[in-house]
From TrEMBL:
This is Nitroreductase family deazaflavin-dependent oxidoreductase. Gene3D superfamilies: Electron Transport, Fmn-binding Protein, Chain A. Signal peptide: none annotated. GO terms for molecular function: oxidoreductase activity. InterPro entries: F420H2_quin_Rdtase, Split_barrel_FMN-bd. Coiled coil: none annotated. It holds the Pfam family F420H2_quin_red.
Amino acid sequence: MNHSAPRPRRPAPPAGWRRRAARLPVRLFRIGLGPLFGGRLLLLVHTGRLTGAARTAVLEVVEHTASPCSWTVASGYGPEAQWYRNLGHTPRATVQSGRGFHAVTARFLPAEDGGRIMARYAEARPRTAARLCAYLGLGADGTPEGYREAGRLIPFVRLECDPACHRPRGRGRASGG
């Protein structure tokens, strides 16, 4: 990694009407319209590190695997994003994807993994990757190596399903006394 490269200038989180607009997907998930996002977004329900209260954030899914079930997300606002800091304190959370809810544990990925993830993301979604890098002040030049370098500067988190979340269910109610 080039340690002489300038750190990204992270944009300030939205405030005022922009914050309300950015929080609109939370309301859509809550009223059951999560499938509208086609798996591109998820609702993260996590625990506030200071209050212990439930907090929510809608995040873009960078990668998803069905087996084992996991979602990879990026912190565009860097390691100071509240959801990111909260997961660092309490890594257990819940993800709503579409209409499904999943118990997950957060795993913070090393910079090298972030570089590979960003290069794959840029290959799959080149325009979105270019806009993201420009918004974050990362000088990705459109090459795979440029996106790898940018991805090393973006904190990535893998939200891994609790194995019990996808355990096969029995056909009927267990008989008991």
